[in-house]
Design goal:
Rossmann fold; Topoisomerase I, domain 3
Length: 694
């Protein structure tokens, strides 16, 4: 019988570690937390110095009995839960349940689940770090107090089922503030002027556009067409001369390896993963994947980290791989990564492959499609971080006509460096013809275009995470559950991959912002994270932080109950009549989006799908209307109302027009430059910016 017992959270992690440790160890899983605050009440004894009232989690009784039995039947018990505050707290709860002394050296952490790391760490156990446990207890109580004290106020004043949270409410305000800026934005008109120029010298023929850029003017300073026409009148259309040429170079540094937040952002941008999915897939890569001939192998280091540190061994392995596969001249400098601020936890390494020689392509058959995509991204990013910078040759040409200046900028890749592997950011060369000062150019055409300044963009998941990280709000492990909560409460919805606050979300935000200024204040929320870090480092007593928070919140809460009047949120009424009771049906939101419901609920429970037309007829059957639909994964697409008779579908919004080249439907695609109209036929290259000619 095995002498030693190892307890981890996950059954998959247990299988991987069992394979490594062998017959002398039995490895079992707690399946997450086994103790927590009760759901039915606050669970904090405020009168008794905020003592938490933990209970065994419902449904874990049988598992707890088995764990106790196993602990008695083994000589030593090792607590090997995840290497973060949450994992430390789970180990502390396990030690309580199993009657272990928290001061005993029975705590083991694995930053990566590999043979060398697991065997090394199991021989060097330590005591449970009570500072980390207390930091987690403080976070749990702060969140519990905010949620359980403010949520009943929202139920009474707005509607049942609502919630408030310490981090959640601050994030909601950030999203609502952005929406307010968008709604109050006043567009400003401006114009651009481009000169279509040609040049011919012996065998050299060139055609290009120079952009008007007088040194005294910014791009936006051409306010209207009249000012633009005045510039055109000043030009000597027969004399466009190359006045100045500048050759130079620039370098682009390799990116840092992934932290949790940068992995979430890049996975959203590059492989279209929602945050929650990214963390689920990363968890499976960390815990172990079954590889033929090798068995279960942990493929990446721990995926919850703020650090960009790389161990010397991992750097050496990466340099060896780079030299072997790309050449010595691609090896970058070994870098020591500094912490980027007081809110950064630097206990771990970056997120990297456990074995850089295990390329994603060599094990593709062992990975699911999603696992391959994320592992490939992590593997490429890690290698790229240790490769040389990319270098570019740059050139700038000043073209003058009657003292008015047009500029031509070019950039050409000279050495790809890290872009050899991290090709996501590789752009096409913008080559400038080989001109010389004094060359005379021929004006073919002048193109003036009207533009309007754009409001700030709504947040998507990636840009919101970047903002939260910059502001120091929350932690990498909290980003995904925070956004998920906002979506599940219908405070926020996702439309075209953007986070859009609902009327309900705006109403709740107004109430919280007016009555609980600290709760939604970004600086206050970031300060709380710093205080939690102080607890984790042993510099602050955790109950003092909870007490101060509670006392301030109680004052605000008492005033709020007196000042806030009952808020009625009415559902939008439609002209669709309920065939069961004759009432006009209303639009409601559910888990899968909008639907029609009878306002007579609960007497009448009639519901219908909500058909949202975009005002365009189907380009295929000409009879049906194009309507907005939702896929099973919650992604919006466009289809014909006559389905299944007509099977027209498109991820992009149809314009109602036909392509002048091939006759297929034109669709609208949103990007940074504005709306682009493209042909839906993948074999047709027709496209134009909305409002511009082809």
């Amino acid at each position: 019988m095995a002498k030693n017992l190892v307890i981890v959270e996950s059954p998959t992690k247990a299988k991987t570690i069992k394979k490594i440790l062998g017959a002398n160890y039995k490895v079992v899983a707690s399946v997450g937390h086994i103790r927590d605050l009760p759901k039915s009440k606050l669970g904090i004894d405020i009168e008794n110095n905020f003592e938490p009232q933990y209970i065994n989690i419902r449904g874990k009784g049988t598992l707890i009995k088995e764990l106790k039995k196993e602990a008695k039947n083994h000589d030593e018990v090792f607590l090997a839960t995840d290497p973060d505050r949450e994992g430390e707290a789970i180990s502390w709860h396990l030690s309580h349940i199993l009657d272990l002394d928290p001061k005993d050296k029975n705590r083991v952490t694995f930053n990566e689940i590999t043979k060398d790391t697991v065997k090394r760490e199991i021989k060097n156990p330590r005591s449970i770090d009570m500072d980390l446990v207390d930091a987690q207890q403080a976070r749990r109580e702060l969140d519990r107090i905010a949620g359980y004290k403010i949520s009943p106020l929202l139920w009474k004043k707005v509607k049942s089922g609502l919630s408030a949270g310490r981090v959640q409410s601050a994030v909601l305000k950030i999203i609502c503030d952005r929406e307010e800026k968008i709604n109050s934005f006043v567009p400003e008109e401006y114009w651009t002027l481009d000169a279509h120029l040609t040049f011919k010298r012996k065998s050299l023929k060139a055609s290009f556009y120079g952009e008007y850029e007088n040194k005294k003017l910014k791009k936006i300073d051409l306010k209207n067409e009249k000012e633009t026409d005045q510039i055109i009148k000043k030009l000597d259309k027969e004399n466009f001369i190359v006045n100045k040429l500048q050759k130079g170079s620039r370098k682009r540094l390799a990116p840092n390896p992934f932290t949790t937040s940068t992995m979430q952002q890049e996975a959203s941008r590059r492989i279209n993963f929602p945050i929650r999915k990214t963390m689920q897939v990363a968890q499976s890569l960390y815990e172990g994947v079954d590889i033929p001939g090798e068995g279960l192998q942990g493929l990446i280091t721990y995926m919850r980290t703020d650090s960009t540190r790389i161990s010397e061994e991992a750097q050496a392995a990466a340099f060896s791989y780079i030299e072997k596969n790309y050449g010595k001249n691609y090896i970058g400098k070994g870098r020591k990564y500094a912490k980027k601020g007081e809110n950064v936890q630097d206990a771990h390494e970056c997120i990297r492959p456990t074995n850089v020689f295990r390329s994603p392509y060599s094990i593709k058959e062992s990975l699911s499609r999603d696992e391959f995509k994320l592992y490939e991204l992590i593997w490429k990013r890690f290698l790229a971080s240790l490769m040389k910078e990319a270098s570019f040759l740059t050139s700038t040409v000043d073209i003058i006509s009657n003292k008015e200046i047009f500029k031509l900028n070019g950039s050409q890749l000279a050495f790809d460096g890290f872009l050899r592997i991290y090709e996501y950011d590789l752009k096409k060369d913008e080559i400038i013809p080989d001109l010389a000062e004094g060359d005379k150019l021929k004006l073919k055409d002048l193109e003036k275009n009207q533009h309007f300044t754009q409001p700030p963009a709504r947040y998507n998941e990636a840009s919101l995470i970047k903002t939260l990280e910059k502001l120091g709000i929350g932690r990498p492990s909290t980003y995904s559950p925070t956004i998920s909560t906002l979506l599940s409460r219908y405070y926020v919805v996702i439309e075209d991959k953007k986070l859009l606050p609902t009327d309900l979300g705006l109403t709740v935000n107004d109430i919280l912002a007016d009555n609980f200024k600290n709760l939604v204040d970004r600086k206050f929320t970031a300060k709380m994270e710093t205080e939690l870090d102080k607890i984790a480092s042993g510099d602050l007593e955790w109950k003092n932080l909870v007490r101060d928070f509670y006392e301030d919140l109680k004052k605000d809460l008492d005033k709020a109950y007196e000042n806030i009047e009952k808020v009625e949120i009415e559902d939008p009424i439609t002209d669709v009549i309920c065939e069961k009771c004759g009432r006009n049906m209303v639009i409601k939101r559910g888990r899968f989006g909008k639907f029609l419901a009878c306002p007579g609920f609960p007497e009448c429970r009639n519901t219908k799908p909500y058909i949202e037309k975009i005002g365009i007829k189907c380009p295929d059957c000409k009879d049906g209307d194009i309507i907005i639909k939702m896929s099973k994964k919650g992604r919006k697409f466009f289809g014909c109302s006559k389905y299944p008779e007509c099977k027209f579908v498109s991820w992009n919004k149809p314009t109602g027009e036909k392509c002048p080249n091939c006759g297929e439907a034109l669709v609208e695609i949103q990007n940074k430059k504005g709306n682009t109209i493209k042909c839906s036929n993948p074999n047709c290259s027709y496209s134009k910016l909305e409002g511009k000619n082809e």
